[in-house]
Amino acid sequence: MWIDTHCHLDAHEFGAESAAQAAQARAQGVGMIVIPAVATANFAIVAALAAGVDNACYALGIHPIYVPQAGEDDLRVLRERVAAAMADSRMVAIGEIGLDFFLPMLTEPAMRDKQIFFFREQLKIARDFDLPVLMHVRRSQDVVLKHARQIRPNGGIAHAFNGSFQQAQGYIDLGFKLGFGGAMTFTRALQIRRMASELPLSSIVLETDAPDISPSWIHPGRNSPDQIPRIGAVLAELRGIAIDEVAAATSANARAALPRMAVFPPNI
Fold first, then answer.
1. Helix axes 190-198, 228-239, angle to 10 degrees
2. Which domains are delineated in the chain?
């Protein structure tokens, strides 16, 4: 069984195909798909989508790209929705949250400060409910680490990891797993592929970030969760180990990172 730890299955690119995409992934051995929210507007959508298929769960959070439109009341809504969702076994984390210092509009001083404020407040919500976090860390590895060290949520995943070995160790020391996906499949991605091959296998989880970050054989087309087994095969090749070993290890790592997933049988 495989686990896609980060898939925006509710994205408009899937249209009315979200459930069919989940079923197609299931047929390829993807036993669980984690669907992160990005804003209060899609909290109910990701929850309903996860409830409507047998191989999905979800996270609630405000993505840094949506922070410019968000207000402090959104943080209140998030806290209330998380409190209510604690009774829902399919809610497994706070996410997608984090910092994005890649997009120019998000690097202006006022917006950078607002991102950090929202990130810290969401880390506090995760800490208060003893939940892991799904973290967006684009061009922001060290700053994300700084605030995660200060607030200390219950672990989680550094999504689409593309940092240094030193930064990787920083996340691992805090109890985080590192997400690898389509970017790893490009032969020119030398640093990512080196990390994927040399970091402890126990620290790695797989993800698609579908419909984005398509693997090399689809790029620039739409990514989908059924690509996880083939992405996993690339990881197996890079490490020189069996595909079954990668499937077992990365799925176990995902369950360790997201403990509420334990209610779902390992072979679901």
1. 70
2. 2-263 (3.20.20.140)
